[in-house]
Write a structure and sequence with these properties.
Length: about 280
């Protein structure tokens, strides 16, 4: 593919490994979207640290998930519920998506992407990017003839100064499922340190804040169409088993995922659709 200008500031081109990539340049920020995975891989407001972490060892070949940015887990989150042969986190993050529209808005860009079809379910994504925030929606349509269940997540890798000294706020009274310790219960504390391996689904919380003392900022995450959010960091030991993450890479991000996961999996009637969304806002401390 040769480089193609779409609207002022938006260019579609192949990255170094040949993957179709949309680069967005604005006076106040710049961003990159990979059509492989249909995912935002970078967003940075000028003069600020990056909002999203992208592993320097991330695979950038068609058919492999990209570790970083905002991977799309769809139409199931985690292992497939009945068929262990199917890939973890569904088919969308390894599919090549289609760019259906890109336009300038008053304060940034709006991008629409069409994702894969999976047995009567179809997914599309809309990204609204401006200097103040990033909004991503994921809409699933059931174009089959019977009701269908699915699960999903926008698996956001938020960039941070150091996971060891960051914390998530806004969790009090959320019901949780802890996949590391195989426990469930209710979170009594409002704040959770991002230290060590964490893999938690928290129900009933649509908004939380990641507080980063090192970079002196907080990232506010507000989700919609979701009653579950996932908090994940592999920690030092598990990170060593991930080939697409440097040994110290776990320090540089914390995942806060807008989800329809586990107990929050959704059923969509024939002809209906459901939208999951997340808004990310970085604010100085
Ligand atoms: O390594 P991946 O397939 O990208 O999955 C990374 C992580 O995603 C989610 O956060 C899950 O809750 C974790 O259990 C999983 O380890």
């Amino acid at each position: 593919m040769t480089q193609k200008s779409l609207v002022p500031g938006a260019t579609l081109h192949d990255n170094e490994q040949g993957g179709p990539t949309l680069t967005l340049k604005h006076d106040a920020f710049q961003a990159e979207i990979s059509l492989d995975g249909g995912q935002l891989t970078a967003y940075q407001a000028h003069g600020q640290p990056p909002l999203l972490y992208l592993s320097p060892l991330a695979y950038r070949v068609q058919g492999k998930a990209i570790r970083g940015g905002v991977p799309v887990c769809w139409p199931w989150f985690g292992p497939h519920p009945h068929d262990a042969a199917l890939p973890q986190h569904g088919v969308a993050r390894t599919a090549r998506w289609t760019l259906s529209d890109v336009s300038r808005t008053d304060d940034g860009f709006s991008v629409e992407l069409l994702g894969p079809d999976f047995h009567g379910l179809k997914v599309e994504s809309c990204l609204q990017l401006c200097a103040a925030h990033v909004d991503i929606t994921l809409t699933t349509h059931n174009h089959g003839t019977t009701a269908r269940s699915y699960s999903a997540a926008l698996h956001t890798y938020l960039a941070i100064g150091n996971a060891d000294s960051a914390r998530v706020q806004g969790l009090a009274h959320g019901r949780y499922q802890d996949k590391v310790h195989r426990q469930s219960g209710v979170l009594y504390e409002d704040t959770l340190p991002c230290r060590g391996e964490l893999d938690l689904i928290v129900y009933g919380r649509t908004g939380v804040t990641l507080v980063d003392e090192v970079w002196q900022r907080q990232i506010v995450v507000e989700n919609a169409g979701s009653d579950s959010l996932v908090l994940w960091n592999p920690g030092e030991d598990k990170a060593r088993t991930l080939k697409d993450l440097p040994p110290d890479g776990w320090r540089d991000f914390f995942c806060i995922e807008a989800a329809n996961a586990e107990d929050d999996a959704r059923q969509i009637e024939a002809g209906e659709s459901h939208t999951l969304g997340t808004r990310l806002m970085a604010i100085p401390l």
